[in-house]
Amino acid sequence: MYSKQVLKILENPQNAGRISKPDGIADAYNEDKTAHVEFSLRVESGIITNCNFRAQANPYIIAICSTITQMVKGKMVGMLFLDPYNIKTTLGDESPIDITFCIDCLRDAVLDYKEKLEKNNKE
Fold first, then answer.
1. Which residues pair with residue 36 across a beta bridge?
2. What order do you get walking across the sheet with 24-29 strand by strand?
């Protein structure tokens, strides 16, 4: 089943929902289309000040998304690095679920932010 940490997060997931007028946003499906996640970001001076998620997925993926949002707050967008192994060990679970699509989705939200910033700087 799920680890105690995953179950604890499910009782009170952090940062669930979408940020209104986000600076960056992206969504993704896993390979077999059984999970859908979305990350939205608020960025100030290149630092992620808020990160929220929405997910239609199993409890493990929801816990992963909640954990990711906590890990990235306060990080510079240019220095962002997330390791799947670190996320799994944080959750106390070594389930073989592929979580790279969650990490890739967050990276896409950062790319969306960077593209919007570049577009605004050109205008």
1. 29, 56
2. 24-29, 36-44, 47-56
Of the two residues 115 and 84, the one the predictor is more confident about is 115
Task: Kindly report the pTM of this predicted structure.
Answer: 0.91
Residue with tokens 């890990």: 71
pLDDT tens digits, one per residue of 23-51: 999 999 998 899 999 999 999 999 999 99
* DSSP string for 61-116: HHHHHHHHHHHHTT-BGGG----HHHHHHHTT-------HHHHHHHHHHHHHHHHH
Q: How many residues does the chain have?
A: 123
Query: What is the C-alpha to C-alpha distance for residues 89 and 43, in angstroms, rounded to an integer?
Result: 27
Identity of the amino acid at 15: N
Q: What is d(CA 102, CA 28) in angstroms, rounded to the nearest whole number?
A: 7
Residue among 55, 57, 63 at smallest CA distance from 17 = 55
Backbone angles phi, psi at 26, to 5 degrees: -160, 155
Report, in angstroms and rounded to the nearest whole number, the Rg of the chain calculated over CA atoms: 14
Q: How much of the chain, in percent, has pLDDT values that exceed 90?
A: 68
